[in-house]
Amino acid sequence: MNPNPQAGADVAAADAPPRSHPRAFEPVTLVLTIVLSVLGALIGIVLITSLGVSPNTAVIGALVAMLIGRIPVGVLTRMRSKHRQNLVQSAISGSTFAAANSLLTPIAVPFALGRDDLVWPMLGGAVIGLAVDSWVLYRVFDSKLLPATGSWPAGIAAAETIKAGDTGGRKAAILGAGALIGFVGALFKLPTSAAGVGFLGNIWALAMFGVGLTVGQYAPEFGFDLGARHVPHGLMIGAGLVALTQALLLMRTKKGGAKGAVNGAGAAEGPAADGPDADGGLTVQAPQLRRGLLEGMGLFVCGAIVVAIAGGVVGKLSLPALVGWVLLAGVAAIVHQLIVGLAAMHSGWFPAFAVTLIFLIIGLVLHIPTVPLALLVGYTASTGPAFADLGYDFKAGWLLRRDAAPWRPFEIEGRRQQYLAQLVGFGVALVVVAVAWKTFFQDGKVPPVAEVYVTTIKTGLEPGTMTTMLLWAIPGALVQLLGGPSRQMGVLLATGLLVATPQAGWMVLGALVVRQLYTLWRRRGITDAEARKESDEQAENDLSLVGAGLVAGSSLNDVGQLTKAL
Which residues pair with 267 in a beta bridge? Predict the structure, then answer.
């Protein structure tokens, strides 16, 4: 006889397929979301100020939610639902990136410049940047520009961790082994997450990423410091301009493209449209993509106006210069988020610092005064990381919801609940940063990237910097054009050169070689085309689990760096 029939009923309900998606504001989910978001925000600001990194805490959130779901106490068993776990991991990862990258780093720029009076105005601008950043991603995720079928490696890691905890078995064993290898490798300073990414993404995009990482690592040994000469920045300018042009082309509505179009947030009507593989599985069509990006641009410009007024830019610039500043800030914000988002989708790495530095250099070339330039840099830096992180979380949710029926309404509602959960995480991050920034900054704990921005603003540019960047923009544009919008080869090449993490290139390229060899090995002796296709799909599934495990293990090690920072 069951001594606690209510608990047994709750467990059964958690295991049953849900008729509707769990809500972000359910009491048990909301309380856990707030508590873990506080933890995530603290982890983020401690690590960004001490080590200069911001870890992905999504796996931590998923693991904690799974453990709580195993406690046989009343409503806590509801956390056995993989969809509630997805909401919690979305919130904690969102609070981490929001606190570290989108809020603390921007306000550190005026502080490092010696203008404490501009910290609060900059925080207001950063909040606007963060809010618009997440809103745009919510509107355009699963479009041709940012499809759910894209790699989004950290999202795969979070989803596979949740699924492994839910089902166990062979998949859990493979994922666990990958996570152990990833964790141990990271302990020995090996970028195992890079190897994990190599098992998950587009081969062409990752090959260019690996080449960029390798060249960026070894070029200084041959007396050619690419970063000091701003070669990667030039490549990113060229690749970024072509990528933006490609994005604009994706916004076009083809003839007949609006048929069966979207309902509300992008749900197509009619039973034939349901299912993640129907019509390419896209829930956001070209008109919605276009509207989302245009809304984002308008909102970013409005945010720039607020920053200009609150930060005193209005009194320092002439009217034409002020209009130019506002437009540059709006364009910089949306370009920054798109480049960072595309790089994150394909590689799991995002060059937020480097792309912000590009706009800083443009500001120096335009002779923007020191304070307006610092505010421009802070506002630009507030966008991008949360955009990428929300993409990871939506990818995780998309994978967890793939078998729902009917799929499309469940997917759209699940994505909305994830967005609401992340807004809770953002709100918690704002409170934590507002309370803690003065203590951290007065103790000398300022994000290293903010100090680099300020140093660059004060020292200015070496002669010929912009010319060099424009010359290198040409090959960057050509590579991006050659690869097309689905591969983003130019953006990924520039990303690899910019991050240039030691040994990461070998990890990515080695994973690609293993990926090909394993696929060929599984294919041996199979002549039937259908059987070969099935074998290749199974190989991809196995390697995806290994890759997800490596990324998850590396993320756990990153969070473990908290003890070192403290």
Answer: 263
Under 8 Å between Cβ of 58 and 393: yes
The burial class, CB within 10 Å (0-12 / 13-18 / 19+), for 313 is buried
| Whether 37 contacts 428, CB under 8 Å | yes
pLDDT digits (tens, 9 = 90+) for 86-122: 999 999 999 999 999 999 999 999 999 999 999 999 9
Would the pLDDT of 439 be above 90? yes
Taking the C-alpha atoms of residue 138 and residue 132, their distance in angstroms, rounded to an integer, is 10
User: Under a CB-based contact definition with an 8 Å cutoff, are residues 137 and 390 in contact?
Assistant: yes
Rounded to an integer, what distance in angstroms lies between the CA atom of residue 281 and that of residue 147?
Answer: 9
Average of pLDDT values for 265-286?
58
- Is pLDDT at 249 greater than 50 in this prediction? yes
Residue 450 and residue 108 in contact, taking contact as beta carbons nearer than 8 Å? yes
Q: How far apart are CA 250 and CA 245, in angstroms?
A: 9
pLDDT of residue 169: 78
Q: Give dist(CA 380, CA 373) in Å, integer.
A: 11
Could you tell me if 205 and 488 are in contact, meaning their C-beta atoms sit under 8 angstroms apart?
yes
- The label of the residue with tokens 């106490």 reads 73
Predicted TM-score (pTM) of the model is: 0.86
Q: Which pLDDT does position 271 carry in this prediction?
A: 36
- H helices of 202-266, in order, are 203-218, 231-250
Query: How much is the CA Rg of the chain, to the nearest whole Å?
Result: 23
Adjacent-strand bridge partners of 268: 262
Tokens standing for residue 309: 């007024």
What mean pLDDT, rounded, does the chain reach?
Answer: 86
The pLDDT, as a whole number, for residue 289 is 93
Which are the contacts of 426, defined by CB distance < 8 A and separation ≥ 6?
94, 95, 98, 130, 131, 134, 386
Q: How many Cα neighbours within 13 Å face the side chain of 306?
A: 17
**Could you give the CA distance from residue 288 to residue 565 in angstroms, rounded to a whole number?**
43
Rounded distance between C-alpha atoms, residue 112 and residue 452, angstroms: 10
Residue predicted with more confidence, 59 or 390:
390
Residues 6+ apart with CB under 8 A from 103: 123, 126, 127, 130, 382, 429, 430, 433
> What's the average model confidence in pLDDT over 407-428?
95
Residue 522 has pLDDT above 50, yes or no: yes
Torsion-angle region of 146 (φ positive above 0: left; ψ -120 to 50: alpha; else: beta): beta
Would you state the pLDDT for residue 276?
67
Say which amino acid occupies 201: G
| Contacts by 431-437, CB closer than 8 A, 24 or more apart | 432/38, 432/41, 432/42, 432/45, 432/95, 432/99, 433/41, 433/45, 433/99, 433/103, 433/104, 433/107, 433/123, 434/123, 436/42, 436/45, 437/104, 437/107, 437/119, 437/123
pLDDT of residue 268: 37
What's residue 55's pLDDT? 78
| Confidence label for 531 from pLDDT (cuts 50, 70 and 90) | confident
Torsion over CA: 166, 171, 177, 180 (sign): negative
Cβ-based neighbour number of residue 400 at 10 Å? 21
